[in-house]
Write a structure and sequence with these properties.
This protein has a six-stranded mixed sheet with strand order 1-2-3-4-7-8, with helices on one face. Strands 9-10-11-12-15-16 form a six-stranded mixed sheet. The chain has a two-stranded antiparallel sheet with strand order 5-6. The protein has helices at about 40-50, 65, 80-85, 100-105, 170-180, 205-210, 220-225, and strands at about 5-15, 20-25, 30-35, 55-60, 70, 75, 90-95, 110-115, 120-125, 125-130, 140-145, 150, 155, 160, 190, 200-205. The protein has one domain (about 5-225): Ribonuclease Z/Hydroxyacylglutathione hydrolase-like (Metallo-beta-lactamase, Chain A, 4-Layer Sandwich). Strand 10 and strand 11 (about 140-145) form a beta hairpin. With about 230 residues, the protein is α/β, with parallel strands linked by helices.
């Protein structure tokens, strides 16, 4: 069996302990950048040091710590600043969040590709599949690459994303967690959007055993636990 072409690098950047991912084909050196924000110089240095060619920006959701923009009066560098470096990239966002992104992140409509669940993007010989997982935000999406899940702020190690923010929906979060992510194969490796645990990765099987947010059998029980019933 031929060796996998997958290249995947996890970078922790910014004061909110964000994970930024560089994922693609280790043979062609083509990569996508997932949630590139905070320290654009560090991201570009990684690309140059490893002779990587970015071909797309994938965004799990529109919050400024993942996309760039203004957060509590402070500007966070992100996708728009990468485009200013003359990288010929498109920014892939779920279709429900394109208008939000245009307002807050300094992007134009021509910069953005609106995605739907089930879409895929080929990066070299590596396919990346998009999974719509609303709850934290209306257009939250995860990226499935071979048996690895880049989950943004939908699923954390031992926890899940907040559902008390504008646009959040706890019932949608339950559906995304229990009816979508928990049904992935147990050996799927979890790569979350923030470094909120004692280790940077987990597996879906482990999270099903240990993460309380994946263990509710009924929506009503989940909502009650989250304070919404």
């Amino acid at each position: 069996m031929a060796a996998s072409a997958l290249y995947l690098k996890q970078l922790q950047l910014g004061p909110m302990e964000n994970f930024i991912y560089v994922v693609g084909d280790r043979h062609s050196r083509e990569v996508a950048l997932v949630d590139p924000a905070w320290d654009i110089d560090a991201i570009v240095t990684t690309l140059e040091a490893e002779d990587l060619k970015p071909v797309a920006i994938l965004v799990t959701h529109f919050h400024p710590d993942h996309l760039g923009g203004n957060l509590f009066g402070h500007h966070i560098a992100g996708a728009a600043q990468l485009l200013e470096r003359n990288f010929p990239l498109k920014v892939y966002l779920h279709k429900t969040e394109v208008d939000y992104a245009l307002r807050i992140a300094g992007l134009s409509r021509s910069d953005v590709v609106a995605t739907e669940s089930g879409d895929s993007l080929q990066v070299g010989d590596v396919p990346i599949r998009f999974l719509h997982t609303p709850g934290h935000t209306p257009g939250s999406q995860c990226f499935l690459v071979e048996n690895r899940l880049i989950s943004g702020d939908t699923l954390f190690i031992g926890s899940c994303g907040r559902v008390d923010l504008p646009g959040s929906d706890p019932a949608q979060m339950y559906d995304s967690l229990v009816n979508k992510l928990a049904r992935l194969p147990d050996d799927t490796v979890l790569y979350p959007g923030h470094n909120y645990a004692s280790e940077p990765t987990s597996t879906i099987g482990r999270e099903k055993r240990t993460n309380l947010y994946l263990r509710f059998q009924r929506l009503d029980d989940f909502l009650r636990f989250m304070g919404y019933a």
